[in-house]
Records
---
Amino acid sequence: MAKSPIERFSAIFLIAGLLFFAFSFIASGLVPWLMMNKVPIKSMDDLAKDIPPSFYELAKEYPKEFKQHYGEANKESFKVALEYGRDLYIAEACWHCHSQQVRPVSNESQRFGKVSYAAEYSNVLQMPQMMGTRRVGPDLIREAGKRTNDWHMAHFYKPVSVVPVSVMPEFTWFFDQTKRPNKKGLAMVTYMQWLGSWIKDTTDAMKQSIPAEHRK
Amino acid sequence: MEVTSRNGGGNVLARLKGESPLVDNWVVKAHFIAGISCLFLSVLAGLVFSTQFMRTYLFPGIEPLSPGKLRFIHTNIAAYGFLANLFFGMLYWAIPRLTGLRVWKRGVSLFLFWAWQAILLASVVGFVLGYAQGVEWGETPIFIDPVVVVGVILMTINFYVPIIKTKEKPLYVSLWYFTAAFVWTGLVYVMGNYLPQFFAPGVSGAAIGGLFIHDLVGLFVTPLGWGMMYYFVPLILKKPIYSHALSLVGFWGLAFFYPLQGVHHFLWSPIPMFVQYGAVTSTIAVEIVVTTVVVNFFMTLRGSGSILKTNIPMRWFYTGMVLYFITCLQCAFQVTLTLQQVIHFTDWVVAHAHLVMLGVFGFWLLGVVTHLWPKVTKREWWSLRLNVWHYWLSVVGLVIMFTDLTIAGLVQGFSWKSLQIWEESIIASMPFWMIRAFAGTLIGFGQILWVYNLYKTARFGKPLEESLPVIDREIEVAPASMTRPALAS
């Protein structure tokens, strides 16, 4: 019987187990990581430098609740609400039915807006990344400013009241007994209205993403 | 096939003169019971989740039981409860028999069993209370992850000790797969749960997250699954695997190509294109490797095909292999950038995931439990007919679900591409989601019948007639001769 060194424990452990795995990690994990290493990772403080107007509107529209849970509408309260909104987005598995990634194919830039680019994911709220895996509902990375705060509140409380065919769950626990948003409701809307708020000129960005021959 | 082993026989005999048996029946049985309970829980959570898609959710307004949280339970308990528990039970049965040696320590086995169930319970509680981690397939709360890592390391040592100590060198095919699976599982778990959470942001995190999702299937579930097939199939057929050379190609091909595929979960994303091309290429390459393995098993079956009529475990195994071939063939096409334009983010992917996790590895494990349950309970099946029902309900349910969701995926993808308003894709999906729930009900019903049969067997089955002493039964399955004739010829 032929001796076959590659059928021994040590060969399998070292070559198949460690070496091949290391190679795959370097080739498809480490290399893209290092390539994007120069893009700075934005902290919460960096993100709070650019507060979308909808956040101030939120404080005006739900003054009592906003005051109670977040105080004044400023950088500090924005950071708290935004991060809590992201945490809820994960906890409630929003990211299993909504994506946060506009692809350059399938007419997605016409439906949602500017095609996603690497730098916009380089921040602490994309650790871990929320690009998503399924789109039962639409993509959300260009959601900021598309709809009003009120629309979002109604939608979270009872989705079919604004989108009759929606299959989204009713997040009634984002609201208190009197159907006013609680800390969670305010945080979720803050997060929704933040997603894509860094794209300043959406119409222009949308135009650029459409090929010239289709532009009129 | 020669039924004696070069070292196994004498070794086993000598060892069995002591008190503790080679295989610890209790641990095998305990993992089987835990795994089947998890299967039940997972199917139930999936079914309840599916009611949301018909706007008839069973627990509206209850925060801890929101549909999203049940989805966490559905997928995580399927992977770490159902598949992992049954795999562990199978390993506690197979590894001592393949090596002729006990696992490292019985105490460790017992500790690991309870620790694993505690991890699962803690995960479920964590999901319900809102502590899920935002990593797909790695939603296990971040504070439980270190415990899992320690558990995996202990598990690795527990199984490595007999593999390293055995005089059976070179190792049998199953042990190649098991050996590699343990190195990979620990590395994959640490990589996927920690790097995207703490170190790699956004796009680079997505690349690593993609690796994690895929490696979990490719480097944990797949090698354990194939190792299991290489053990049980020749054993039941009582003949060696068709070609040792094909076994080698299959293993080393999988080991090289499988880890390189992860990024195909994020095609058309801002991840550098050359990484995406690489992932696509290696995914297509692995299809060739898969073909060699499947051919190897079907050539082994050649001339004994009629066993599928009578032997339910073998039927599970070969059904799984057909579905595996379909999965991988589908994968080679769906991974292309062309098809990804339409099917990414649709139910096509959900169909694919169910085909892999339940249709292939789930079915194999159901087959293994069906094969081993009389042996670990020392009782004959209470009802063979219920096992047949279990088989058909599960297979028919799964095939309906797969076909249904695959078509649904195409409908959704083209609806989006044609720029219909979003709601149109929901309206069009509705009938598909109803059929999906129906298919899930069939699968669930099959499992109920089976669990009933398992219980009746353990309690009221006729005691297994043991004309041979336990020792002979151990020798009967000694591994050495399983592939050697093929190698020699």
---
Amino acid sequence: MRKRLITTTLASALIGAALVTPTQADVTIASWGGAYTMSQQKAYADTWTEGQANFVNYNGGLGEVRTQVESGNVTWDLIDVLPHEARVGCDEGLFEELPRDVFVPAADGTSMDDDIMVEVPNDCVVPQIFWSYVPFYQKGAFDGNPAGDPKTIADFFDVEKFPGKRGIHTWGNALVEMALMADGVAPEDVYSVLDTPEGMDRAFAKLDTIKDHAVFWSSGAKPLELVSSGEVSMSLAYNGRIGAAILSEGAPFVINWDGQVLEEEWLAMIKGTPNADEALKFLIHASAPEQQAGQAKWITYAPMRASGIEIIEAGEPWFNTGVDIMPLMPNAPAALSEKHLFADPGWWADNGDSISERFTAWSGQ
Amino acid sequence: MAASNASTSQPLLTADGTPLKTSLQRSMRRSKLRAAMLVLPPLVFLLTLFIFPIGNLLTRSTDDALINHQLPVTFAILDQWDRQQLPDERLFEAMFLDLTSLNRYLIKDNFASAVNPNDPAWKIQIPKKGPYRDAMIAIAPHWKDAKTWSPIYEIAITAAQATGTEREIKHQQKRAQFKICSLLTPLTNAACSKLYTALNQWDGVSEPDERLFKALYKDLASANKFLLGKSSTRMNYEKPGFKSLIKKSGRKLKKVNEPPYKEAMIKADKRWGDIGFWHALLAMQKPQTSGYYLNAVDRKWDENREVVMQPEERQVYVMLWWRTFLVSLIVTLGCLILAYPVSHLLATLPLKYSNLLMICVLMPFWTSLLVRIVAWMIMLQQQGVVNDTLVMLGLPDEHRLPMMYNFTGTIIVMIQILLPFMILPIYSVMKTIPPSYMRAAQNLGAPPSLAFLKVYMPQTLPGIGAGVILVFIVAIGYYITPELVGGKDGRLIGNMVAYHMQKSLNWGLAAAMGSILLAGILILYWIYDKIVGIDNMKLG
């Protein structure tokens, strides 16, 4: 009996030890899950030969990263971050600064940093994708409507001409910018208008016009459900989610690119990771133009590198099911010819908290 | 009586000759020790996972040390400013030095009230391209002494001798670099890699040379960047815009070498000429702050150090506190009303049926929270089952009831989720009440309602108390349900705590809200104890 007890204890201790000892050369990447992580798995991890890449899901924000770094117990190696986190993480020293000359240049020799379609905020991040907040509706939802189908961001805010509820998210990002664009502010003036108290009031006054017609969502799959069930006639959503529904399930959704707000997505290395060398190799692989373009085979988020877009354009039909993907790319020439705005993370770093409070107060009244 | 007689005459002995008293004490001690060992694991568990985090929470909610490390001189002379008009050159100079120089890491008295702003060491500039040694020793002579270096030298040497696999060695060395920086700076996330290398090339006793000072300078400069990043986040809580002000002007100020600093700073960014940013500093001046607590109830310090309301459009927390309280109250009452008859049924039905009913109660309890929430979404949304049925029964299509993604939705779903917490304690108490009591009351002439009120209900009070406390406490900190079904007006204080933990990284504010929540629960518990009495509570 006693002997058995000892053996079981030993066995469980051994198993426990095996579980906590990480296998070598494994790179752990924290990402958002779902179709997005699947696209990263296919485009980056499956094509990577120098090691094994594993994905874990997280819910955004740097809370977990800060805990890991400050306690010195780093279990993630890389993280997929939003523009705001990309800056804060580097400023506060939660990410490693990376050498910039090791990354793969474009085919014409342009260095990676110059190949990225926006200014690189710091030395901690490597490019991932562009994604955007964009309004969409179901084909036929406005049949028989005297004003026809909605076309612009102003139409999204016009519940008189385009009846029905509106799906919007429960935080302020992109909404205040869209409200001003719908109110006639030129995209390039949006942030300078928002910098004045009157401009901010103006944005919220515009939001007031749809408040009683708004259905709020907080998870990315929700707006698709809201629109297809008819609960709302139009909704904002992440462009990749709409694209995935159109391409994979043949959903009859129509995207209005007018008024879209584009956001960046970056990869960064967590400071103090014991796998820094492998993680850097993975980053070099994942940020190369081919892999950037490759991700768009699986999801309609767009590469940040101009050379990635070129590969896709030349390779159409690019999507894995053999259909064209450029019409669903937020930074394709067609989409960018409409009114649009690249969100300004610097502005949001200053004003994110106060907008969050104001938005919560606004939506709760 | 007999025992005292025995002890006065002669001590009782056990078989082996030791006095009975000693022998008993020894065995008592042994069993006490064994009992202590048995409870030790849960005790350690409790201490590490409960007491320690709560202590940490409380300290974080008032801690403002970081910003005091960043702006020592500015805060030391801030009180001399009249606060009516833009500060003069002196305060600008202090701010300039605090933002750009590394002197604060070298000078010993560098924190809060210990700072001597008139110490000339604050103004000594270390040449950016070296030589570093002379300037750094001029700032703080004790760095000349090898003893000052010995703590970090020990760390570096120990790590360099680490054994194990290549990977483990590298990890040890990396951790040593972090440890060195954490001794020199208030940061735990900066790596002093240059210093680590330089220390390992040093013998530990000879006078520190230029190479060491150069490494020290470089590593401090890199750590300083992170401190500035964190400080600007902190400053931005007080006044939106501080973050970009620090970041943008920081780059330009690197090129400024001589006074007047006031002009140079305003030229670098005109917002330094805005008195509002200077007023915001007043709220951060003490290493302990009540600012987070004030923020959690929509208040703040103004330039006259008086507590004022936040600007109207930012007032959100008081409303959320009330809403959280209200939701918890409604949910508790709703649960009680629904649970009481069900529990009674469970307690009085024959075993055959009551078991089945019990499974019906427990089944959702065992089902995943998310599954239940999604099920309610399908039921209650505008195009959902309930509304479709109502429309079929004649409700006009445009008047579908909004029951999801709002206050109502939060209440309905929370009641369903928390119902078992109410049913189980009430049921377990009702189970012990003999049915003969009611019969006896009626036999003595009481009508059923009176018999219920006077005889049955008072006996169920302990169960009700337990259920009410349980449901209320769980409801008041609820987070995931309101997040998913709360929509515009069903989000609670727990959601804001999560937002500040994960997204805004304002852990001080999150900790303050957590502490208020904890205090609120303790107060309610105390009130409950005064009114109902806590010994009256029965969980089963």
